[in-house]
Specification:
By secondary structure, the protein is an all-alpha fold. Helices cover 74% and strands 1% of the residues. The chain contains 20 helices and two strands. Strands 1-2 form a two-stranded antiparallel ribbon. Strand 1 (352-353) and strand 2 form a beta hairpin. Helix 6 (101-129) runs antiparallel to helix 19, helix 7 packs antiparallel against helix 15 and helix 16 packs antiparallel against helix 17 (365-381). It is globular and about 70 Å long. Belongs to the major facilitator superfamily. Sugar transporter (TC 2.A.1.1) family.
Length: 465
């Protein structure tokens, strides 16, 4: 594709707007981190109850991802993202106002539907609207925005808690700070919805609907008339000869009667991204560090540091993903996470309980745990964090992209739920070490999985997948 024909301004606009979905994904996922003391006090929750309230978003996310993959083939990529924005807004208002654990869980499930929808639709939309030679870099912005959303939530939680004197202390209008942590999310949710009104629909979706002239018009705005004409023909040629409208049954190879192997690879990539335990840091960071002796204020500050390091790591990924490739970054990440998770497990194994019942890490173990945990976060965000979303958005053929993402996205969020809901029960202080050993083993296995199954997609057109 001729670089000079690219409408850089429009490409930048669609990426910027679509990745607000990533910001909302991150914010809605991270806002729970720092509110758990408030939830426990307001709803009288034990460790299992906290796990269920925290994990409720993941139930919604798994179904949101599955539904959105297919829904985006019916109402479009942009239409699905607009629906996600509405769900984010409703969830923010309802979660903050919840008077019981049951209402809070419902609110978080609604938010989860939005998270799941945004998580699979935004990467697909970006992949379908950007040129192959820079697709990896532009798609990686999604992960930057996810981490920015997480960090934004951490920062907002820290400021509100500091302002009020604690997450359970009263803030404005006689409501505790933890409720305002949820209500604040309504602002970016509204911005997301309004911004989506200003960008076009994916041309690849339009072709599947037989709306050829609309697709050609969008491609002409993006890449010029000559390229648009050729690209429409290529998209049509990449779709099934007997039907253009994608179906879930397209995931089965008609020649063999079996699930297409590429789908299993996508599911594996999606699941391993969660089995390494990254969302334990994002969902339970404050609780985790308090469990080994840090104060609430210090734990919230550590969350902010982790978020800032994550953004820096994502920027490194953006610089190298279209040069080095997707597969090498995944391998580097798996190796780095295996080592750093192992060190974290060792540090937590040294925890001691004092006469007053307080838990602490002796000697330099606390500092080692802190450095290793943040190194692990860096390795994740320079590799599996952005690369998984890039690959899921580009690795599947046009005919099955929506359906394959529905299945892979569902699997990713189910794995997320298993890890996140189980953590409070597994991670009593003596169990923290064993838990992190399991995450380290998952990282090790992921290295061999990538080496054996993943095919490099750098620089390939979507129609060639």
């Amino acid at each position: 594709m001729d670089r000079v024909e690219i409408n850089a301004r429009l490409v930048a606009l669609v990426v910027a707007v679509a990745t607000i979905g990533g910001f909302m994904f991150g914010y809605d996922s991270g806002v729970i981190n720092g509110t758990q003391n408030g939830l426990e006090a307001a709803f009288d929750l034990g460790s299992l109850g906290i796990g269920i309230n925290v994990g409720a978003i993941l139930v919604g996310s798994s179904f949101g991802a599955f539904i959105a993959g297919r829904l985006s083939d019916r109402i479009g990529r942009r239409g699905t993202m607009m629906l996600a924005a509405v769900l984010f807004l409703v969830s923010a208002l309802l979660a903050g106002a919840a008077g019981s654990s049951a209402i809070f869980i419902i609110a978080r499930i609604i938010g989860g539907l939005g998270v799941g929808a945004a998580s699979v639709t935004s990467p697909v939309y970006i992949s379908e609207m950007t040129p192959a030679e820079v697709r990896g870099r532009l798609s990686s912005v999604q992960q930057v925005m996810i981490i920015t959303g997480l960090t934004g939530a951490f920062l907002a939680n820290f400021v509100l808690a500091r302002w009020a004197g604690g997450s359970t202390a009263t803030l404005w209008l006689d409501f505790p700070a933890w409720r305002w942590m949820f209500w604040l999310q309504a602002i970016p949710a509204l911005i997301y919805f309004l911004a989506l009104l200003g960008i076009p629909e994916s041309p690849r979706y339009l072709v599947t609907q037989g709306r050829i002239e609309e697709a050609r018009a969008v491609l002409t705005r993006l890449f010029g008339a000559a390229t648009a004409q050729r690209k429409v023909a290529e998209i049509e040629a990449s779709l099934a000869a007997d039907h253009h409208q994608p179906k879930l049954s397209d995931l089965v190879d008609k020649a063999t009667g079996k699930i297409r192997p590429i789908l299993w690879v996508g599911i594996g990539i999606a699941v391993f991204q969660q089995l390494v335990g990254i969302n334990v840091v994002f969902y339970y960071g404050a609780t985790l560090w308090q469990a080994v002796g840090f104060t609430e204020d210090s734990a919230l500050q550590i969350n902010i540091i982790s978020g800032a390091l994550s953004i820096g790591a994502c920027l490194i990924a953006i610089a190298f993903i279209d040069r080095l490739g997707r597969k090498p970054l995944l391998l580097i990440g798996s190796a780095g996470m295996t080592v750093t998770l192992g060190v974290v497990a060792w540090a937590f194994s040294t925890a001691v309980t004092g006469a007053d019942g307080a838990v602490s890490l002796p000697g330099n173990a606390g500092l080692i745990a802190l450095i290793s945990a943040n190194a692990y976060v860096v390795f994740f965000n320079v590799s599996w964090g952005p690369v998984m979303w890039v690959m899921l958005g580009e690795m599947f053929p046009n005919q099955i992209r929506g359906s394959a993402l529905a299945v892979a996205g569902f699997a990713q969020w189910i794995a997320n739920a298993v890890i996140s809901v189980s953590f409070p029960t597994l991670a009593t202080t003596p169990g923290l070490s064993v838990t992190y050993v399991l995450y380290a083993l998952a990282a090790l296995v992921s290295f061999f999985f990538v080496r054996a199954t993943v095919i490099e997609t750098r620089g390939r057109e979507l129609e060639d997948m």
